[in-house]
Structure formats: structure tokens, C-alpha cells
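Bug #77: duplicate submission created two jobs. Keeping one. Sequence:
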Amino acid sequence: MKRPADEGPKAQHTVPESYLLAWGDPASKNPRDPYVWSFPKNRIKGAPKPPAVIFKQSNFYTIQMPDGSRDLRLEHGLATLEERFCAIRDKKLAEGIALDPEERAWLCAFVAAMKCRTPGLMEHHSKQWQAIVDYMHELKAWAASATPEQRAAAASISVSTSKDGASGTLEDAERLAANPVEHLLGPMIATQLPILAGMRLAIIRTADSVGFITSDDPCTWFDPDGYKLPEFYRSPGLAYETIEVAMPVSPSQLALLSWRGPEGFVDVPIGAVNELNRRTRAHAHEYFVANSSVSNPVWFDLGKEPEDSWEKSEGPTPTEEEE
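Kept job's structure:
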């Protein structure tokens, strides 16, 4: 029987409970109902929290229909993706079994979703579209008081937002600013998936008892060579040859996608684990999660500027700045 479109919870996980369960503290008195340790991003002390109650927002994925009903197609689609991921994690990756092409595609889809579905990213897009909305309102106010000559001069300026000349309306921009999840989540996942699927996949493993941490924004894009570029070009992109896409799978495993990195199962020393945990904590929106109360000060160390950074090796000299 098909579920009604508006059947389902109003409190929705922005990071799946099924994903977080892998970080259950082994010391939990009830293994069937474990707790994880949630740490504020910049604090070394955390608190035990049930995965069922953290990282939730009311109707985050809900599409509100004109008749007042709730369309949960996004929520249900993500639930299917989560089920596939958990099966792959528990039955294949945890056992050290290589993934077949279909399983690899499902894993990449989950990685893409974990990058796109977070409140932090959606808040970013909402602010960007709200700035456009505000500007369009300013233009409307200007047009209402402009002279015919000024309006004619403005109309003569040709501006298009795409190759085919298509443009959006104020109402389109307002919808995107008000609910970016509804309009952007699906297209963003669909755009990233074929790129991620073409990258090299390594499952990084550790035997450390704490192992990998995760967060409320668990998928990180990091370019190890980004510091060599001018600041304007440092935002990591999937087209960069040195990009590394990392997502913790469990405390003992982390999925790493890259263009020229390792493939297959790779065991790493604790130093590499701490470096990846530094990225995860630094990239967190508000909280990171571990499987114990142990928090390593190394995760909070942002390091020193390398000697071959762009500022030190290619930046403008004092003489050039004065000129």
C-alpha cells in the first residue's frame, strides 16, 4: 500500500540516526540503545546524547503543498538512500569486502547527499538567494520612481543568466531563498553523483579505539594544495586534481574519494587518523561526534602557515603594494 504523501515525522534528521549509530559508545550499558558523544565544535568536552534526538529540525525536508498537506518525497527518498548505505557499510565495508559497481554508486550517492543535505549549506544558499531578492526589490523601488529616459536606458542593457538567455523571476528567487532544500537538494546530488562516481575510492581503516570522528556536516571537501593558490581560488572544487572528498563511515573506516589518491582498503597509522579528524572537526557546522568522551587536542590544532604558501612565495612584495 502506497504511503500518503503527508505521512511521516515532522522532526527530521539532518544527519541520519542510522548513520550516527555506528558511533555508539562501546561502554553503553544498553548496546541496543547506545549513546554517542556530542562535542561543541570548539570545545574539548562533550556530553552523551542518544542519536535519536540530535541533529533534527522540524520539517527540514518537507514540501508544504498549497492545500496545507505535507509532501515527504525528499524524506522518503533519503530514507531509501540511508538503508542502502547502512547495508553496504555493515555487510561489505565492515567485512573488508570490495563493492560491486552498483554498491559503489549507492555509496557515492550517500556521500553526495551528506554533503548537500546539511543546514549549514542550505543556510548559505538561502542567504545568497535572499541577497538577490533584496536587490530585485531595490530595482523595483528604483523603477517606480525612475524617469522614462532612465527606464529606457536600463532596458537597453542586455543581461542573461544562462547560455540560452533564460532568466528567473522575483518569485523564483523568493522561493529559493525561503526553501532551498525543496528546490536545490535533488539537483545538487544529481550534479555531484556522476563526478564522484568517476573518482578513485579508498576505504581508510584504523584499529584505534576512538578512530574517526564525524559531525553535523560529515562530508568534507579539502584541497591539500589549496594554500598554494591565491585566496580567491581556494574554495575546493571537484574539478581540482588534488581535491579529497572524505566522509567517515564509522569509527574504524572513512571513505576517501580523489582523482589521484589510493584505492581499495588502506590501513593508516594514528597520525593520518588525527589529520583526517582535524578536517572533520574544523569543517563541522556546530558539533562533532565521537564514540567516547575522549577528545584529542590535536584535532583543534590548525597548524602553521607553510613556507610554500601563496602569501609567502608568490604574494605581492612590499614594493609592489606601495606602488
